[in-house]
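Project standup — Tuesday

K.O.: blocked on the structure for the chain from last sprint. Re-posting the sequence here as requested.
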Amino acid sequence: MQGLKFRILLDSDAKTEVFRDIVLSASDNFETFYQTIIQAFGLKGDQMASFYVSNDSWDKGHEINLMDMSYDDDDLDQPANVMSKAVLKDFIQAPDQKFILIYDFLAMQLFLIELIEALPEAPQQPAIVLSIGDTPASLHQDLPSEEVFMAGGGALVEAEDFDEDDLGFNDYDDGYPDEELDGYHETEF
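H.V.: unblocked you, prediction finished:
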């Protein structure tokens, strides 16, 4: 089985490039690829993530999730959509095949991945063969547990200062006068 050498570029606002070159076997699955990328960039790996098959324009195509997100068996004819079941060689369609990895969907950390070489022999195990640039500290920071992300404006507030009225949910006018709701009580199940 042949080996594959990928370049993984961290897409960030930093003025310096941050990328890693990784070699894997073409028969490795995307979960192995993901774990190698997490290790290469020094991340915890505790966030949701997905790979997307891409093209030269970096468009997102077929999604390969970290966890099984399907609801039924309707997707049996589709290519594998879970990292542990998706094998790299099954998704290589071009000599410079591209993938996008999104890590942490709240922070939207984006990795642009390109196949840069097909090797005649597969490595014994995945390996990081080149490391350029330092991973920004912002990728390593977690939000303190006492903070809550507010959906309205993306602002962080302390949990004790959180008020759902700030979200505007109670501003909805359903068209019924409030007095019609007198005598209405929610039933707990």
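K.O.: great, moving the ticket to review. Confidence is low (pLDDT under 50) at residues 142-159. The chain has two domains: 3-134, 147-176.
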